[in-house]
């Protein structure tokens, strides 16, 4: 152990692969609220396409309900803020759950945590593709490849990212253009706004570099999924899968409202 | 800075309380009590009104959503009862005192930005029936809270 690592706070690292995104999010919410340790969760692709909305997301505004219902694409509401994504085996996830006292230079507010994450990933993408944190997205140049979201509690916070390793245009068609878009997007449509991470970095290399960057601020300890203590489950769980009935009801109401609007 | 003090003066005049002008940044109102997690509380008999402070709303950024608790729900001092969403984050709102929720500010569902523009007035979040009036003694007064905010900001 080198001298510089003495006194660094401990960070548990859990590497997953193909874990269902609902399971990952429920795990993260539990660890944020019921654990006192720091965690770095890496999920190297989830197993099936799922739509994931932020806490305040409204399906009628964010999702093309008819094809989603027809094709039975799961829609999840997560416990963090932020926008809507469709994730699959070509989405990589990195989540950092920290005690605020273990990152004392970071105030427990969104912009401060976001800036800290930007500097962390600047180490990962050093010299690669003009990486920057732009508004709240990770970009190469002016093209987004990573979307962020956070949840902040009294003494802890989570910052998690979905990285577009690759994506399919047909999956993106399940999502509507959101009403709130970053200013740097300008008027660009989706294909001109995002880029594929695989065009810039090797998949395994990205994961390795990310864990290494985390290791500059924390003492790392790798745990398997089975080694995570799940005895404490007293927290309020807000992450959930929306039911098909809920989506159908939303579609029916939306259709009815549109009909009334047209008649008027 | 001058505009914020003018706003605070108008609020204070309406609420019939005096204000403490800090050297910089956020507004703190006298006659309210404050929690370290940056919620304010106004106690009136056995009822209390809560919200988040000007310091909190300034650091959170534009609030786009407020998750409100159900009526009748119990809240405990220091525990989360709801959340605000700003930027890409949900941030817990913690209860400064314990009690039962008797009113929520439904206007925030349509106008969450009131938490930013009027944190001590129109942006109030919930009202509770107190279960333990003594708990308020654990909270900070305006002078202590002002100092607390300055010390917190100075660390970063």
UniProtKB/TrEMBL annotation, chain A:
<dbReference type="Pfam" id="PF21948">
    <property type="entry name" value="LplA-B_cat"/>
</dbReference>
<dbReference type="InterPro" id="IPR004143">
    <property type="entry name" value="BPL_LPL_catalytic"/>
</dbReference>
<feature type="domain" description="BPL/LPL catalytic">
    <location>
        <begin position="36"/>
        <end position="222"/>
    </location>
</feature>
<dbReference type="InterPro" id="IPR053264">
    <property type="entry name" value="Lipoate-ligase_2_inactive"/>
</dbReference>
<protein>
    <recommendedName>
        <fullName>BPL/LPL catalytic domain-containing protein</fullName>
    </recommendedName>
</protein>
<dbReference type="InterPro" id="IPR045864">
    <property type="entry name" value="aa-tRNA-synth_II/BPL/LPL"/>
</dbReference>
Automatic annotation (TrEMBL), chain B:
<dbReference type="InterPro" id="IPR033753">
    <property type="entry name" value="GCV_H/Fam206"/>
</dbReference>
<dbReference type="InterPro" id="IPR002930">
    <property type="entry name" value="GCV_H"/>
</dbReference>
<feature type="modified residue" description="N6-lipoyllysine">
    <location>
        <position position="88"/>
    </location>
</feature>
<keyword id="KW-0496">Mitochondrion</keyword>
<dbReference type="InterPro" id="IPR011053">
    <property type="entry name" value="Single_hybrid_motif"/>
</dbReference>
<dbReference type="GO" id="GO:0005960">
    <property type="term" value="C:glycine cleavage complex"/>
</dbReference>
<feature type="domain" description="Lipoyl-binding">
    <location>
        <begin position="47"/>
        <end position="129"/>
    </location>
</feature>
<comment type="similarity">
    <text>Belongs to the GcvH family.</text>
</comment>
<dbReference type="GO" id="GO:0005739">
    <property type="term" value="C:mitochondrion"/>
</dbReference>
<keyword id="KW-0809">Transit peptide</keyword>
<keyword id="KW-0450">Lipoyl</keyword>
<dbReference type="InterPro" id="IPR017453">
    <property type="entry name" value="GCV_H_sub"/>
</dbReference>
<dbReference type="GO" id="GO:0019464">
    <property type="term" value="P:glycine decarboxylation via glycine cleavage system"/>
</dbReference>
<dbReference type="Pfam" id="PF01597">
    <property type="entry name" value="GCV_H"/>
</dbReference>
<dbReference type="InterPro" id="IPR003016">
    <property type="entry name" value="2-oxoA_DH_lipoyl-BS"/>
</dbReference>
<comment type="function">
    <text>The glycine decarboxylase (GDC) or glycine cleavage system catalyzes the degradation of glycine. The H protein shuttles the methylamine group of glycine from the P protein to the T protein.</text>
</comment>
<dbReference type="InterPro" id="IPR000089">
    <property type="entry name" value="Biotin_lipoyl"/>
</dbReference>
<protein>
    <recommendedName>
        <fullName>Glycine cleavage system H protein</fullName>
    </recommendedName>
</protein>
<comment type="subunit">
    <text>The glycine cleavage system is composed of four proteins: P, T, L and H.</text>
</comment>
């Amino acid at each position: 152990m080198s001298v510089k690592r003495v006194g660094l706070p401990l960070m548990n690292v859990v590497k997953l692969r193909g874990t269902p995104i609902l399971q990952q999010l429920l795990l993260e919410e539990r660890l944020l609220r019921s654990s006192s340790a720091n965690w770095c969760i890496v999920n190297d692709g989830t197993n099936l396409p799922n739509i994931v909305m932020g806490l305040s997301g409204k399906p009628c505004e964010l999702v093309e309900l008819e094809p989603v219902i027809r094709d039975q694409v799961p829609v999840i509401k997560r416990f963090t803020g932020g926008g809507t994504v469709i994730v699959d085996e070509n989405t990589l996830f990195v989540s950092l759950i920290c005690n605020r006292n273990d990152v004392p230079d970071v105030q427990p507010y969104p912009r401060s945590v976001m800036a800290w994450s930007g500097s962390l990933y600047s180490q990962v993408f050093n010299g690669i593709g003009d990486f920057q944190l732009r508004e709240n997205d990770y970009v190469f140049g002016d093209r987004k490849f990573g979307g962020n979201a956070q949840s902040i509690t009294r003494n802890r916070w989570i910052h998690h990212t979905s990285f577009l390793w690759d994506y399919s245009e047909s999956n993106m068609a399940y999502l509507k253009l959101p009403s709130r878009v970053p200013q740097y997007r300008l008027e660009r449509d989706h294909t001109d706004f995002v880029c594929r991470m695989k065009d810039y970095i090797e998949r395994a290399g990205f994961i390795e570099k990310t864990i290494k960057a985390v290791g500059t601020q924390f003492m790392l300890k790798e745990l398997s999924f089975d080694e995570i203590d799940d005895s404490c489950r007293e927290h309020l769980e807000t992450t959930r899968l929306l039911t098909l009935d809920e989506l159908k009801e939303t579609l029916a109401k939306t259709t009815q409202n549109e009909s009334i609007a047209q008649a008027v | 800075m001058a505009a914020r003090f003018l706003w605070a003066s108008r609020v204070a005049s309406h609420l019939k309380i005096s204000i403490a002008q800090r050297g910089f940044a956020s507004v703190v109102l006298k006659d309210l009590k404050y929690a370290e997690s940056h919620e304010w509380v106004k106690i009136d008999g056995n009822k209390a009104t809560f919200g988040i402070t000007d310091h909190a709303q300034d650091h959170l950024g534009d609030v786009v959503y407020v998750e409100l608790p159900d009526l009748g729900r119990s809240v405990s001092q220091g525990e989360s009862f709801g959340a605000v969403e700003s930027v890409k984050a949900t941030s817990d709102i913690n209860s400064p005192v314990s009690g039962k929720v008797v009113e929520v500010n439904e206007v925030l569902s349509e106008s969450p930005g009131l938490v930013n523009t009027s944190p001590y007035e129109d942006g109030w979040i919930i009202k509770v029936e107190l279960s333990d009036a003594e708990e308020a003694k654990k909270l900070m007064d305006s002078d202590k809270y002002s100092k607390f905010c300055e010390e917190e900001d100075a660390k970063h």
